[in-house]
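**Paired protein data**
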Amino acid sequence: MGLETTLNAKPRTVSSSNYAKRLRADGLLPIVFYGTDLPKSSSLTIPYADFKSALLNSEGNRFLYTLAVEGQEPTPALLKDFQVDPVSRKVLHADFIKIDPSRPVTVKVSLILTGKALGVEKGGQLQQSEREITVSGLAANIPSEISADVASLGLGQTMHLSQIKLPETLKLVKTADLPVAVVAVPKGLKAEAEAAPVAPAAPVAPAEKKAPEKKSDKKPETKKR
């Protein structure tokens, strides 16, 4: 997966901010590499173009790489964090951590929605609220993306995190059952449904009038004693 992408790094001996600016001007990205089994963190540089290409175009997971430090054996590494310039949006610095291939790692994976929702065919709008989900698994089993089929979603229906089918080698990290996608009902469609003419009720037949009873002219008979 992401480990198939190798980033070549070189040591740097100076860690000042001015030196970091010079490195960036020369097309290099300052990084720090550390791990629990490493004696100390290492200050390194990698070509900025390589890092950008790996982050945006890598076929594997964009947080997992093989870091090849000059003079050392290549090792699996997790991109733990990176800082971005708020104006230029260029990455200024990155932190990598050494990982053990035999132990699970926690990584964010892109969530891709597939299929055409039933509600969309009826005029609804599919909205995706989560673009990434956090999973745990061995680095070699972490994919670049996870797909979720939304074809069965109707108008107003929501897909939650728990409904996403994961490979047996992965586990969800978040315990909250967050909504990841919903087929929203547009206001116009809702108003149209509310304004739809209601079928008239079936006419009720008028009740039949009873003919008035005729009064008898005969006087009641009285019994003689």
Q: What stands out?
A: The chain has two domains: 2-99, 106-194. The two ends are 122 Å apart (CA to CA). Helices lie at 17-25, 48-57, 118-121, 187-195.
